[in-house]
From TrEMBL:
TPR repeat placement: 418-451
Database matches in PROSITE patterns: TPR (PS50005)
Keyword flag Cell membrane: no
PANTHER family: BETA-LACTAMASE-RELATED DOMAIN-CONTAINING PROTEIN (PTHR46825:SF9), D-ALANYL-D-ALANINE-CARBOXYPEPTIDASE/ENDOPEPTIDASE AMPH (PTHR46825)
Keywords, ordered alphabetically: Signal, TPR repeat
Stated name of the protein: Tetratricopeptide repeat protein
Gene3D superfamilies: DD-peptidase/beta-lactamase superfamily, Tetratricopeptide repeat domain
Signal peptide coordinates: 1-24
Residue ranges of every copy of the Beta-lactamase-related domain listed in the record: 30-324
Entry annotated with the keyword Oxidoreductase: no
């Protein structure tokens, strides 16, 4: 039967559009592959990567080796420790129990763990989720097991701060979330995650607390070829494949495990650059906008970037940390947007951290400019990231005046970037200079109207 001409043209146009879409996706995938394989050749990425665009996986690859011996090549079946991203499983678990009426976020910790000292009477579940419990961190040098850590907690006579008053990101908050889940459910945290989170999310190969005997687990190592010790003092760490990680990202974005109200509770931190249970991100009422979380554990490093409206997901996992996953993500996202992108180069901060720590702000900038003039192709100087990373390195060392000098220089180099003004605003905020913090956050929001963090701080400072 012949088709009427009036039907042929629409069908023809549909075919043309489909072909153009496939070609565009293939071109993106090819550019991403070139980017990643170049980074691998330069020793700047050893690990697994997945990229989805418009809700469809367009690129997936395993690049490099499974361990320090460099005799076994990675495959997509390998599982990686994902550092702090594994904390999402306890945060989501707490919210699942809240949805079922098993707990309230306002409940005192002593309700579930009455054996703890008196300070547990003043600490709420929400304080553990927000890292405002006042607890000190795990004593990593001496703790060898969950029992050791619980014994340390039992010895604490006084908290470092009043619960709810001060943010301190540390793993005792995570440890106690996991113990609460065990007390309420009557099963191990491992069993709870496997039965109530992994299976419902469609995750089939994830493993919790893998040992050296487990197959298809990537082993981390440093740039000198030294293998990380395969030991974790406290339990509850989930290692993932690319497919399982993608399934988890979709479960969060599509509210398969917890509803939008519960998700909002653990995706928003209590202040600027404060971690939440899901790392960080944003929502528009009951719709997920972004979910971004990074994690590091010795030489393991992972990054999840999910932007639901565009159907974009970028997953990067490495067992040879180079400190460049955000830079890789930015280049990948630029490729997806059809924009120019930067090649991956060595980290200026990682390479020269010892020298940087011995210089003042002015000397650091002089040294930066000298290296940039002589080694532009070797280190990453293409965008704002290098100076931003340098500024945060200084800020992390409590060198706020030097960090401000670096961030100020970055705003002169990249005057149209909302991100660099946000960083400068944060440095002034931490310094206590509210007028200049407000000025720079407003400039950041003007350049980037989607900056929810700037909106929050401006509202706070305007009061």
């Amino acid at each position: 039967m012949k088709l009427n001409l009036k039907y042929r043209l629409p069908l023809f146009m549909m075919g043309v559009l489909c072909t153009a879409s496939v070609l565009a996706q293939n071109n993106k995938a090819a550019n991403i592959d070139t980017l990643m394989r170049r980074a691998n050749r330069l020793g700047m990425f050893n690990g697994n990567v997945l990229v989805a665009d418009h809700g469809k996986v367009i690129y997936k690859a395993a690049l490099g080796y499974a361990d320090a011996s460099k005799t076994t090549k990675l495959t997509e079946a390998y599982r990686f420790h994902i550092g702090s991203i594994a904390k999402e499983f306890n945060a989501v678990g707490i919210m699942m129990l809240q949805q079922k009426g098993k707990l309230s976020l306002d409940d005192k910790l002593s309700k579930y763990l009455p054996e703890l000292p008196a300070w547990a009477d003043s600490m709420s579940i929400i304080n553990l989720l927000q890292y405002t419990s006042g607890l000190p961190d795990v004593q990593w040098k001496t703790v060898k097991s969950d029992a050791d850590n619980m014994a340390d907690l039992m010895k604490i006579a006084q908290l470092n701060s009043v619960p709810g008053k001060k943010y301190n990101y540390n793993n005792n908050n995570v440890f106690l979330q996991r113990r609460v889940i065990e007390k309420i459910t009557g099963i191990s945290f491992k069993q709870f995650v496997e039965d109530d989170e992994l299976k419902p999310a469609g995750m089939n190969t994830a493993v919790i607390d893998p040992t050296e005997k487990d197959a298809l687990v990537a082993h981390a190592y440093d740039n000198k070829g030294n293998a990380d010790p395969f030991f974790y003092p406290i339990s509850g760490w989930t290692a993932l494949t690319l497919d399982d990680f993608y399934a988890w990202a979709n479960a969060i974005d599509k509210f398969k495990l917890i509803n939008p109200v519960a998700t909002r509770e653990i995706i928003n931190g209590i202040g600027p650059n404060r971690q939440s249970g899901l790392g960080g991100g944003s929502m528009d009422e009951d719709k997920m906008i972004s979910h971004i979380h990074d994690g590091t554990s010795m030489n393991y490093q992972a990054l999840l970037v999910s932007k639901a409206p565009a159907g974009i997901t970028v997953i990067l996992m490495t067992n040879n940390k180079q400190g460049n996953l955000y830079a890789i993500d930015r280049s990948i996202e630029a490729i997806l947007d059809g924009k120019p992108y930067a090649q991956i180069r060595k980290s200026f901060v990682d390479e020269f951290s010892t020298k940087i720590d011995s210089l003042n702000g002015a000397q650091i900038l002089a040294f930066y400019n000298d290296v940039k003039a002589k080694h532009r192709d070797e280190y990453s100087f293409d965008g704002e990231d290098t100076l931003n990373e340098l500024g945060y390195h200084l800020m992390g060392s409590k060198r706020l005046a030097d960090a401000i000098m670096v961030f100020e220089f970055n705003t002169k180099l990249f005057p149209n970037s909302g991100n660099v003004f946000d960083s400068l605003g944060e440095a002034y905020y931490n310094q206590g200079n509210k007028p200049l913090a407000l000025l720079n956050y407003k400039k950041s929001l003007q350049l980037d109207p989607t900056n929810d963090n700037a909106k929050k701080i401006i509202t706070e400072l305007d009061k």
